[in-house]
Specification:
about 500 residues, alpha+beta, globular
């Protein structure tokens, strides 16, 4: 009898659904304080899985906390960071999403103390920022490690009797008296301020809580990410140049050369600034634009600029760096194989704001006149751009403090501006489409050329928006290419 072999073939399927996990809840915490989950180690997946978060931030393997979607692999270590409810007795649920599976992190504030006088509720939602001479919401602003920060003053109101006052994690003062950590008593109408020292290390947070009678309010200091590790020093396929030699990290820019490039060329350049609300982001977000530019025969450039999360700076620093980078590109045009008269600048979201200020010749507050561009760029490309930072109608003018109007591009446009094309989703919930439409009206009124492209149904990130009719990523590229050809910048 002949014997045979039976081959058993086991199919191995890629799996991006993680094993079950449950974050332990945080019970009885002080209102408004920062809470960090225990570490979750990703398990049960055999391929990269999408990670996102609702109502909080997350960190992977100790890197900077973020609210943006990313990817994780098996073995990655994830923590979630969130703020407790602002009032006693409340609950907040944040959700970490991994591979489409949600893991809830529940935070419950302690009950309100009984038997104490009750003033009106109060909050510490802002910190004073000396660079902009104004106040910034604490949840959006990062500070330098070991720095001392203070809140705006709050007035004690509707207090029927003297009430005890105490502080945890900081110090306070009443009616201008010296700061103290000792318990005390306040009366109706007293004015109170709180001060706290930021953690000694990067990518950390600490909360300070003031108690007045049966009320409490907290504020949190988030320290910057480690700028050295979080700032790319190299990007694949590019050549890195140092624009400004600054500690702890130099200002760098990354150049992507087109096929057949030589230093003797005199090509068009395309400089594109990443977005991120002047807070997050780095050149890795814009290098795809540099690669696209190189595919069209241009020298593609992905610059860096200071952001709040890495450097504890305001938009003033970002604008200064953007102008300095264009100046550097112009000064080094010969070695980069660039025609100085054919440099195109572009940017998306807050990067568009930086871009506009590199195309405006007057030096704004916070920028170094010695770093002003040598001449205007040949054209401007804007995608979902912030072009209005004014107090009256601008996007997050509080980031600019008293300088919101002074840093408003729409109020300081040259006449004429370089030829401009501006893309904007008409359903953008972040930066209103009217910013771009109004910008184009002003540019045309000043004798310039501006092509406004309204994207039907488009949101702030319309180029990658799911289910948006039409391939708007490719259409944007194609329309930019056509626009640059019309301006004689591509052949």
């Amino acid at each position: 009898m002949a014997q045979g072999w039976i081959a058993l073939v086991f199919a191995v399927h890629a799996d991006s659904t993680p094993d079950p996990f449950q974050f332990a809840p945080r019970e009885g915490v002080l209102p408004g304080t920062v809470q960090v989950s225990e570490t979750y180690t990703v398990a049960g997946i055999t391929q990269p899985a999408l990670i996102d978060v609702v109502g909080a931030n997350y960190s992977v393997n100790g890197r900077a906390y973020t609210a943006s979607a990313g990817e994780v692999v098996a073995g990655d270590r994830v923590t979630v960071r969130a703020l407790a409810p602002k009032s006693y007795g409340q609950e907040i649920i944040t959700t970490l999403l991994v591979g489409g599976v949600g893991f809830d992190f529940v935070i419950r504030a302690q009950p309100a103390p009984a038997g104490l006088p009750t003033p009106s509720s109060f909050r510490f939602d802002e910190l004073y920022v000396s660079e902009v001479q104004g106040y910034e919401p604490t949840r959006y602003f990062f500070v330098k490690p070991r720095s001392t920060q203070r809140t705006p003053a709050v007035r004690v109101q509707n207090l029927k009797a003297p009430a005890p006052i105490s502080v945890i994690g900081g110090s306070y003062r009443v009616n201008g008296s010296p700061y103290t950590q000792a318990d005390g008593v306040v009366n109706n109408g007293d004015v109170v301020m709180v001060s706290a020292v930021a953690p000694a290390i990067s990518n950390d947070a600490v909360s300070a809580t003031l108690k007045i009678g049966s009320r409490a309010a907290s504020f949190t200091l988030f320290t910057t990410a480690d700028a050295v590790t979080e700032t790319p020093a190299a990007l694949a396929g590019t050549q890195m140049f140092v624009v400004r030699d600054r500690n702890p990290v130099p200002l760098r820019t990354f150049v992507y050369y087109p096929p057949g490039w030589t230093a003797s060329d005199r090509r068009t350049a395309f400089v594109y600034d990443f977005g991120g609300a002047w807070t997050t982001g780095d050149p890795a977000k814009s290098v795809s634009w540099a690669k696209w530019a190189a595919s069209k025969g241009m020298v593609g450039i992905a610059p860096d600029y200071r952001t709040n999360q890495r450097f504890a700076t305001s938009p003033l620093a970002a604008v200064d760096d953007g102008r300095a980078t264009l100046r550097w590109v112009q000064e080094h045009a010969a070695e980069l194989g660039i025609d100085i008269s054919r440099i195109v600048v572009g940017g998306n979201s807050a990067g568009g704001h930086v871009t506009l200020w590199s195309a405006i010749m007057q030096t704004p507050v916070g920028s170094d006149p010695a770093s002003a561009p040598l001449q205007p760029p040949a054209a401007v490309v804007l995608v979902s751009a912030v072009s209005d930072s004014s107090l009256a109608s601008g996007y997050t003018p509080w980031r600019f403090g008293v300088h919101a109007d002074a840093l408003n591009p729409q109020a300081h446009l040259d006449s004429p501006m370089p030829p401009t094309i501006a893309f904007h989703g008409d359903a953008d919930p972040t930066v209103s489409v009217t910013q771009s439409s109004r910008l184009c009206e002003l540019i045309v009124a000043g004798g310039g050329i501006c092509q406004f492209v309204s994207v039907p149904g488009g949101d702030h990130g319309y180029r990658t928006q799911p289910n948006l009719p039409g391939d708007w990523k490719q259409r944007t590229y194609d329309m930019i290419e056509q626009f640059l050809r019309e301006q004689g910048l591509l052949v």
